[in-house]
Amino acid sequence: MSRMTRGTQVPARWRLLACGLFLVASCSVAAAADAGIVDVHALPQLEGAVEDTSRPDPYRVEYRVPTPQAVTLQAVRKLLIAEGWVPYVLPLEEKSTTLKFKKGRQGLSVHFTQALGRPDQSVVYYTTDRIYSNVPFPDGASDLVFDGTRPYLGCIAPGALDATSAFYTSQMEAIGWRKLTAETAARWTTAALDETVPNGVRAFYDHPEGDTTQFYKQKPVMLTLTRRDDGRTDVDIRIAPFVLPVDLSADGDVAGLPRPNPTKTARGLGSATSNKREMSAAAMAELPAVLAFYHRELAARGWQEDGSAPLAPGDDVALKISNAEETGLLRLGRKYDFTMVSLTAQLKESALAARAKAKKEADEKFMKDAEAMARQVIAADEARRKVQAATLSDAPLSALADSKTPVPLPETAEGVKFEGDGGHLEFSSTSSVKALAAFYRASLKPAGWKEQPSVINQPNMAVLEFSKAGKSISMTVMQMGPKVNVSASGSGLVMAAAKPAAMQEVQAKSSEPLKPDPESQLPVPTQRSSTSLSTTKMPGSEMPFRRELAASIPAPLGDVLAFYRAELSRLGWQEKADGAAVSAERAQIDFTSPQGPAVLRLGRAKGETTVSLAQKNPDAAAKADIMPKPGQARLMLGNIGAKDASLTINKQTVKIAAGAGGPQSPKGPMLDLLPGTYQYALRMPGRPAHTESLTVAAGDAWGLMVGPTGEVLPLQMY
Fold it and tell me: CA 384 to CA 636: how far, in whole Å?
């Protein structure tokens, strides 16, 4: 991904960050030149389709149809099946609304959205899927579950056992698979090729290197065919057990509980300090290996096994566990080619009581220590104030000559700051609070100002309130160290001031209509003092997740707002009726654009209008698997340093391995967070903890990349 500002030099650390939190790069070879990639532009489309050609992409097609989403989904499914595409579902994703299809070596993903503001219309997206590990589907098979990255296939073939076995014997060989024999399997010492299957047959295959189909090097697979009572045949193809890991290592903890490596998915609830915590995962290993992992890891963490628990549906193993403070339950079962893990831990009543007691004692001690410290600070501050007050003068004050302010200034006034348009005055003085209060009472009363009573009238602070003819002035006079600070505001201080030269220039320029810059990717006037455009995208892809334009324009806010409303409307952006907040000094408007949601923010600074225009692309974010869950934000972690790091945020500690999310490694860990501001702490060996804060909003995706020197670089991805 990249985030670059036009016209500026990019620091080295951002170039490193641009190498990626994610390194799933798109292939640059044209789709038509790769027999494993379908030409999505040649696929059939529904009647009445209107294709979006604004963003040409050889791997993706988008078109709109005049039917609701639910109707469109079924129609597309029927249309593609008629063209020979076979539908299937991914393991553990049976409820996904994305359709998956396979045709020979080619794969296809189809997903749908409702057309913007039109529930009677929907949008269809065809996206290519590369099948890295191809296995044949029997004609007419049902209940197809397939993953072309391992591979895994589970289905029901319509034919009898003998016919299905003959089909696989011929078709596996036709696409480059070779049936393993004792000689060809000699390198795997634990391979048992002669094992039998009750009421079925089993065979093992490998895929030699250098085959003409240009597959990636594949692990051996195990084909199991089982005769069904209805005359059909169950088909199961998975990675051969003898090449799967036996001694599993520990991955990063989830909710403070151990997780084996490798896992396909994992989720947790709670943390190491929670009263109750849960962890579930789909481990890519056989059940005995996963069970051995937990025997070892739980024992190393002080857990003991307390016998078996009743089995729930889907369980093969259920163990009661406990340690000094908690009781728990470990459940293991098989689903597809995964070992499904469920591990829960609950604090004992005695531990809950001990924690409550310890917290109460710690809170009481904290309060006592805080009170004692406060008394010391107050006493020291009082002594310091007395010493400082002794240096302040109580001498009567005269007014400063040639003052341009609506109220007089004392002769000892220093660092005067006056804002006539906002009605604010501030200065400091070496005179005492008593002398300054007396000065303003004596000088404002003859001018017709009437003082309102105030209860704050102390040697180190006084509040003065004056009124006259519907106008008011409020003054705070406070001792601040060796000087006294005076701050005043109110309608009685408002006065028209001569416009500085810079403002006069702005007004002169604002009379010239704002013209769009034809070279800019997002609208911006040619009359600007500065501009920058930043994008975040995946390496190898031209489709950004997010684009943001920042500019400073020497024109009134109203003119700039009118410019953007006109230009964005011309580009097909639609302003949300309930997403606008406009005032004289700032504006924020939410839009829906053809690419996705967008927001325009305007403000005023240094006599100019500041612009922030950000646009998101949900399709690109979904394709890269960085789309936050509804109502939440997503945080992606990476580490381009040479040492492992750990980051604690929202009561969760996540291990970030060295190189995770870097150019030569897969994605780093990801967390889903509720909107808000979070403190996070980064820890690396040999370095002190580094603490920062991060504010995330619903729908945001942020990346936190650990740099080579231990710094954390935040970047809004989406």
Answer: 50
CB 463 within 8 A of CB 425: no
Hey, is 517 helix, strand or coil? coil
**CA–CA dist 616, 627 (Å, integer):** 11
In angstroms, the Cα distances linking 310 to 317, 381, 458 are 9, 67, 74
- Smallest CA-to-CA distance from 655 within 248, 256, 249, 275 is with 256
H/E run at residue 299:
helix 287-300
**Main-chain phi, psi angles of 125, to 5 degrees:** -125, 120
Q: What are the tens digits of pLDDT across the range 184-211?
A: 999 888 888 988 899 999 999 998 864 4
Threshold 0.85, pTM exceeds: no
The reported pLDDT for the residue numbered 532 is 79
Please say whether the dihedral angle defined by the alpha carbons of residues 668, 669, 675 and 678, taken in this order, is positive or negative: negative
What the block records as the tokens of 71 is 């109707």
DSSP secondary structure of 349-400: HHHHHHHHHHHHHHHHHHHHHHHHHHHHHHHHHHHHHHHHHTTSB-S---BP
In one-letter notation, the amino acid at residue 459 is P
The amino acid occupying position 45 is Q
CA-based radius of gyration for the chain: 35
Alpha-carbon torsion 433, 435, 438, 442, what sign?
negative
Structure tokens at 239: 């990675």
Residue 454: which residues within 8 A CB-CB, separation 6 or more?
Answer: 462, 463, 464, 465
Residues 559-581 as b/e (b if ≥16 CB within 10 A, e otherwise) read bbbebbbebbeeeebeeeeeeee
Three-state SS across 37-60?
A: CCCHHHCCCCCCCEECCCCCCCCE
Q: What is the pLDDT of residue 202?
A: 96
Contacts for 434 with CB less than 8 Å, ≥ 6 apart: 394, 459, 462
- Strands of 48-141 (E only): list them: 50-51, 60-65, 86-88, 99-103, 106-115, 118-130
Backbone angles phi, psi at 605, to 5 degrees: -155, 130
Alpha carbon distance 86, 710 (integer Å): 49
Token digits of residue 463: 């509040």
Cα–Cα distance for residue pair 373/449, rounded to 1 Å: 44
What six digits make up the tokens of 123? 């949008």
Query: What residues form DSSP beta bridges with 111?
Result: 125
Residue segments in the chain with a per-residue pLDDT below the cut of 70 = 1-33, 209-216, 374, 377-378, 380-382, 384-385, 387-389, 496-511, 538-542, 579, 662-666, 708-709
With the CA atoms of 63, 67, 73 and 75 taken in that order, what torsion angle do they form, in degrees rounded to the nearest 10?
A: -100
Q: What are phi and psi of 45, to 5 degrees?
A: -120, 155
For residue 96, which of 667, 625, 701 has the smallest C-alpha distance? 625
The single residue listed with the structure tokens 């060989």 is 173
Residue in the structure block whose two tokens are 């070596």:
105
Q: Which helix (H) or strand (E) holds 570?
A: helix 557-570
Burial 352-374 (b: 16+ CB within 10 A, else e): eeeeeeeeeeeeeeeeeeeeeee
What the block records as the tokens of 592 is: 């829906």
Given the structure tokens 């963490």, which residue do they identify?
Answer: 301
What one-letter code names the amino acid at 177?
A: W
Handedness of CA 526, 529, 535, 541 (dihedral sign): positive
Counting Cβ atoms within 10 Å, is residue 715 exposed (0-12), middle (13-18) or buried (19+)? buried
What is the Cα–Cα distance from 609 to 556, expressed in whole angstroms?
A: 6
Helix, strand or coil for residue 440?
A: helix
